[in-house]
Design goal:
By secondary structure, this protein is an alpha/beta fold. It folds into 3 domains: 4-98, Cobalt-precorrin-4 Transmethylase, domain 1 (3-Layer(aba) Sandwich), CATH 3.40.1010.10; 101-201, 2-Layer Sandwich (Methyltransferase, Cobalt-precorrin-4 Transmethylase, Domain 2); 214-404, Vaccinia Virus protein VP39 (Rossmann fold, 3-Layer(aba) Sandwich), CATH 3.40.50. It has 14 helices and 19 strands. The strands form 4 sheets. It has a 7-stranded mixed sheet, sandwiched between helices. A 5-stranded parallel sheet has the order 3-2-4-1-5, sandwiched between helices. Helix 12 (324-334) links the parallel strand 14 (314-317) and strand 15 (340-345).
Length: 408
């Protein structure tokens, strides 16, 4: 396979390239790139090929290419660019230009080694809230849909007003423009499609510890109490063994307390919930905004709705409406290797049904009976008030134990 060169280029076109890079382009026989990139070389003598749509077909064509070929890409091709794919699939040498992030921080006059870097260019903004919450400095690659205004409105929906934004447009070109904005100003602004957004935390933000107090959650009124209590929530989440990129299902999510705490652990992952009660779902959405967790929650009676979720690494079942066996069959079937299912049962009948169903699916189980009490003042004295006992049932596939050791 002929070795090709992947060259990063800035918005100022040929001026951004070293003389050596320009000579490589002039001597090549095939120049590949976006329409904007190719337009920088009106006098090119060889063949031009526009990169459009899916890259798979172009990569296959280039595999068979024997001519001297140069591929143009914006900025650093290995930073959220096509360079990574091309390096995996083709025999290429990569010559990066300054990335738009580097240039934006240079215009801003600040170091960027401590910044969190994310891209919403061609990607969903879903989940961004919990990923960036609490971070001091965040750089975002944008696109026409996830524009600075759209990003600002998204962040405002989670009341993340501690951030100000630096927007850098058309970096390196004659139309370059940079400036600082409040989120409200950015929400009302109009910006070039070619831009970078840097968020800087300038005010205090709320900090929520693991084990958020029950009273902090919006709950159904006047019937408070339909919430997985903090102590049981902590024990159940520990049994799920979540990691930063976990895909989590919360079935019977109610106020969303478990799903919200799960999302704050699995910040780079995804959390999905199902809730049949519309009032509880409204409370869940209020809690999502308060605790800055961008979950996917659907209104429905599980197992309906689960088919639209990706396969999970962890499943929490806090309640079911009589379809527990069918529900567990679906969860066991779709659980990813090494994953876990945790069921909270308030009755011995549910405990029995769950353990029998899980055994029929070939899953191992362990059960913890949580009998907890909280102190309560009585005049000048203190007594303890018991919480409802809860069986915490943890399940995992037997194969996971045989292949990787004990999962207990």
């Amino acid at each position: 396979m002929t070795q090709m060169k992947v060259i990063g280029i800035g918005d100022d076109g040929q001026q951004s390239l070293l003389p050596l890079y320009r000579s490589w382009i002039e001597e090549s026989e095939l120049l590949v790139g976006g329409e904007r990139h190719l337009a920088f070389f009106p006098d090119y003598k060889g063949e031009k090929r526009v990169l459009k749509g899916g890259l798979s077909a172009v990569v296959e064509e280039l595999r068979a290419e024997t001519r001297r070929t140069v591929i143009l890409a914006s900025g650093d091709p290995l930073f959220y660019g096509i360079g990574g794919l091309l390096a995996r699939k083709l025999n290429v040498e990569v010559y990066p230009h300054l990335s738009s992030i580097q240039l934006a921080f240079a215009r801003m006059g600040e170091a960027w080694q401590d910044a969190a870097l994310y891209s919403v260019h061609g990607r969903s903004i879903k989940g961004l809230a919990q990923r960036i919450d609490g971070k001091e400095k965040v750089a975002l690659l944008t696109d026409a849909e996830n524009s600075p205004a759209a990003i600002a409105n998204y962040l405002l929906s989670f009341k993340m007003t501690e951030y100000d934004a630096f927007v850098a447009e058309n970096l390196g070109s004659a139309e370059e423009k940079t400036g600082w904005y409040s989120l409200q100003e950015m929400a009302d602004g109009v910006f070039s499609d070619l831009n970078v957004v840097i968020l800087k935390k300038r005010r205090e933000s709320p900090a929520w510890p693991f084990g958020i107090p029950d009273e902090e959650f919006s709950q159904r009124k006047p019937d408070k109490g339909l919430i997985t209590k903090k102590e049981v929530r902590i024990l159940s989440l520990a049994q799920l063994q979540l990691h930063a990129k976990s895909i989590v299902w919360d079935i019977g999510t109610c106020t969303g307390s478990v799903a919200i705490e799960a999302a704050r652990i699995a910040r780079e992952g995804e959390v999905y919930g199902v809730e049949k009660n519309a009032d509880d779902l409204e409370n869940c959405q209020q809690n999502m905004a308060k605790f800055r967790t961008d979950l996917t929650v659907v209104h429905g009676r599980a197992p309906q709705g689960l088919e639209q979720f990706p396969d999970p690494d962890a499943v929490f079942i806090g309640g079911s409406g009589g379809e527990l066996r069918e529900l567990l069959h679906i969860c066991c079937t779709r659980l990813r290797p090494g994953g876990r299912i945790v069921v909270n049962a308030a009755t011995i009948e549910t405990l029995y049904e769950a353990t029998q169903a899980l055994a029929a699916e070939g899953f191992e189980t362990s059960v913890t009976l949580a009998q907890l009490s909280r102190s309560k003042p009585i005049l000048s004295l203190t007594r303890f008030e018991a919480l409802n006992p809860i069986y915490i049932i943890t399940a995992w596939a037997k194969a996971a134990v045989e292949e990787g050791g004990s999962s207990k």
